[in-house]
Specification:
Shape: globular
Strand content: 15-25%
Number of helices: 7
Helix content: 25-40%
Mean pLDDT: 95
CATH topology of one domain: DHBP synthase
CATH superfamily of one domain: DHBP synthase
Oligomer: single chain
CATH class of one domain: Alpha Beta
CATH architecture of one domain: Alpha-Beta Complex
Low-confidence stretches: none
Order of helices and strands: EHEEHEHEHEEHEHEEEH
Length: 216
């Protein structure tokens, strides 16, 4: 099913259909502030495996988790530096993914995460509305591995087809630049992927952050 999110009534119906599909372990394509995302219930191991299968990706590439509030970070991660709390309060919602040690009490299975979790709060009202209804979602780019990330819902549908239960059509992507990925699990924080948030911006919160490509 595909829903036009530019029509308020259809957006409402689409969000309810997406919520129901996710609760049944099915997959949903949704717009974000970067490229389109492929979403699954983060707490359903089978749903996450369905996501990996749909993309043609192995468990060695676990999906990040999207949240609807910066405060959710406390429930998902441990050893959160104070400067990082300040950073996400300033830059979330937005294109910044942070990798932290996950809460040991979490019972999910996102793949081979080595007890870490990658978390982001997207700056897209439709995505946030869905996540508020469902709780944290495992979300990867809406494409088959090796193909370009989908910039509109039709591209996503061409690649993923019937593997996805609900497509939320939010029009063309706001940006084709991915999120910046910041790893804070080591002794020195390091950018793993340079994206929409510059190193200079990150340095305003912590000037010891190493750029992508530098040794840890």
């Amino acid at each position: 099913m595909k829903f036009d999110c530019s029509v308020e009534e259809e957006l409402d119906r689409g969000l309810l259909a997406a919520q129901a599909a996710l609760e049944e372990g099915k997959l949903v394509v949704l717009p974000t502030d970067t490229v389109y995302g492929l979403a699954a219930d983060a707490f359903s191991p089978q749903a996450v495996q369905n996501l990996l299968n749909a993309k043609g990706r192995g468990r060695d590439m676990p999906p990040p988790v999207l949240v609807s509030s910066a405060t959710t970070l406390e429930a998902l991660a441990v050893d959160i530096p104070s400067w990082l709390r300040t950073m996400v309060e300033s830059l979330w919602p937005g294109p910044l993914t942070v990798i932290l040690r996950q809460q040991p009490s979490l019972t999910w299975d996102l793949g081979e995460t080595h007890n870490t979790v990658a978390v982001r709060m997207p700056d897209d009202a439709r995505a946030l509305a869905l996540i508020k209804q469902t709780g944290p979602l495992a979300v990867s780019s809406a494409n088959r591995t090796g193909e370009p990330a989908a910039l509109d819902v039709d591209q996503a549908q061409d690649m993923l087809g019937g593997r996805v239960a609900v497509y939320l059509d939010g029009g063309p992507s706001q940006s084709d630049v991915p999120s910046t990925i910041l790893d804070v699990t080591g002794t020195t924080p390091r950018v793993l992927r340079q994206g929409a948030i510059s190193l200079e911006t990150l340095h305003t919160f912590n000037n010891t952050i190493e750029p992508a490509g530098d040794p840890a």
